[in-house]
Design goal:
The chain has 206 residues and is of the alpha+beta class. The strands form 3 sheets. Strands 1, 4, 5, 6, 7, 8 and 11 form a 7-stranded antiparallel β-sheet that branches. It starts with 13 loop residues before the first strand and ends in a 6-residue tail after the last strand. The relative contact order is 0.20.
Length: 206
């Protein structure tokens, strides 16, 4: 089966109203935002493969999970969101490789955009059931290399995000959201710059 042939590049717009689940004391909750975008990222994988998340397997029949290797929040003005504001969340995605998926999310109110989120994930599986120390990179059974028909701007953004994540892991970064280094071990978790940019690097298996 050609998994890439069934890929989609967007999800239906999600609509909600800013209430208790979405808000914190300072505006829109970043925790809610990342959970919502992460769930939609996973949904793109399920929809594009025509399988439920629990059914995803690698070539050896092992359960697959999506581990986030890079999450960026850009142009965030979360404090501008008020109670009962209508929220609109748009999602676009593409395959960055046989084992990586990239997505872009934008949340808006009636006054405009309040945050953009980029997510890059890699498929992982456990070599030994129930043992998180045995997690290894894997690929979806039947997956092929990304189709050249992927939207060019989205594909370019996916490649840039993947390259950036590789640089951070290798300690080869020089500047990250306003933080400079001389080639040290990498940025601290979750730095933010004046424009509201946040970087998260971690594993979030579903």
């Amino acid at each position: 089966m050609n998994i890439m042939a069934t890929a989609i590049d967007s999800l239906p717009t999600a609509h909600s109203c800013a209430g208790m689940p979405q808000l914190c004391s300072t505006g829109l909750s970043e925790n809610w935002l990342l959970k919502e975008c992460g769930d939609r990222h996973w949904e793109t994988i399920s929809r594009s493969t025509g399988q439920s998340s629990a059914s995803l397997r690698d070539i050896l029949g092992r359960r697959l999970y999506a581990a986030f290797t890079s999450v960026h929040v850009r142009d965030a003005t979360l404090g501008a969101v008020r109670e009962n504001d209508p929220l609109q969340l748009d999602t676009r995605w593409c395959a960055a490789s046989r084992s990586q998926r990239y997505s872009q999310h934008e949340v808006r109110t009636s006054r405009g955009s309040v945050a953009q989120v980029e997510m890059l994930s890699v498929f992982v599986s456990r070599e030994r059931a129930g043992d998180n120390r045995s997690v290894v990179r894997s690929a979806l059974a039947g997956a092929r290399d990304p189709a050249s028909a992927s939207p060019s701007r989205l594909a370019a953004a996916a490649e840039a995000c993947a390259e950036s994540a590789r640089a951070v892991r290798a300690g080869a970064w020089m500047e990250r959201v306003g933080i400079q280094t001389a080639g040290g071990p990498g940025p601290p978790a979750g730095p933010a710059d004046k424009a509201g940019g946040v970087v998260r690097v971690g594993v979030m298996p579903r």
